[in-house]
Amino acid sequence: MGTVLGVLGSVGAAVFAVLATAGQVTLFAASALGHCIRPPFYPRLLARQMLEIGYFSLPVVALTAIFSGMVLALQSYTGFARFSAEGAVATVVVLSITRELGPVLAGLMVAGRIGAAIAAEIGTMRVTDQIDALTTLSTNPMKYLVVPRLVAATLVLPMLVVVADILGVMGGFIVGVFKLEFNAASYMARTWEYLKFEDVFSGLVKAAVFGFIIALMGCFQGYHSRGGAQGVGAATTNAVVSASILILVFNYVITELFFAR
Questions:
Q1: Which of 107, 111, 212, 240 has the most beta carbons within 10 angstroms of its beta carbon?
Q2: What's the first-to-final CA gap in the chain, in angstroms?
Q3: Cβ atoms of 132 and 183 closer than 8 Å
Q4: What is the pLDDT of residue 2?
Q5: Could you tell me the CA-to-CA distances from 62 to 54, 56, 199, 259 in Å, in that order?
Q6: Between 31 and 260, the higher pLDDT residue
Q7: Is 222 within 8 Å of 126 (Cβ atoms)?
């Protein structure tokens, strides 16, 4: 009996810890959103973060997208050839890239790169009392550190996903035309035939949400880090893991909102 109660107590404690963390994240996000619409604003910090999050993440997102498109075309052809439906390869590639793979893979790549960097930077500032120094200098840390990163990630990730969509489709086109020997004009016609605006738009909405989640979790984990270098390392790991999980969760939620009938 004691063992059962011990297990139930551990499960209950874990559930309460998750709920407490979710509440803290929600309050943190609400506070950050409130500061987004109230002056003062820091446009130079915003531009710097857009450059850091967007431009410097472009190579990893581009490589991920183009090779994902190439693999998707190859695997789709292998499967569809069994049913003599090879002509559907172009359609499957473009819909898969724009709806799912573009935003999700870009989000995960940026989470690994930017989420970790944000958590490490803000966490280091926390454990070295630089955040307290900002408060002493009458500078709001939320507005100075958190808001530019949240806004920049939310604005820039859809741009990265547009690039990922184009390169992913191009990767499928390269494999389809040069390896699988599709006619180039026919492949492009099938690419455009079934592509709709909502396919691309849903991916861009996902990208904006994912960008917000990545920056939010990086800022939250870094802002609340404790315990010196070990605490900063834990905050970095937690930021990447939590952002990646939330990306996959919200991917399903947004897909349900757009495409459930």
A1: 107
A2: 48
A3: no
A4: 61
A5: 12, 11, 20, 27
A6: 31
A7: yes
Q: What is the 3-state secondary structure (H, E, C) of 130-147?
A: HHHHHHHCCCCHHHHHHH
Residues 6 or more apart whose CB falls under 8 angstroms from that of 8 comprise none
Which residues are CB-neighbours of 202 under 8 A, at least 6 positions away?
Answer: 99, 254, 255, 258, 259
Token readout for 79 is: 């499967």
Q: How many CB atoms lie within 10 A of CB 144?
A: 17
Query: CA-to-CA distance for 145 and 160, rounded, in angstroms?
Result: 23
Determine the Cα–Cα distance for residues 92 and 159; give it in Å rounded to an integer.
22
In 3D space, the residue among 166, 251, 176, 173 whose CA is nearest the CA of residue 210 turns out to be 251
Question: Helix 184-193 crosses helix 89-96 at what angle (to 10 degrees)?
Answer: 50
Residue pair 103/119 in contact by the 8 Å Cβ criterion: no
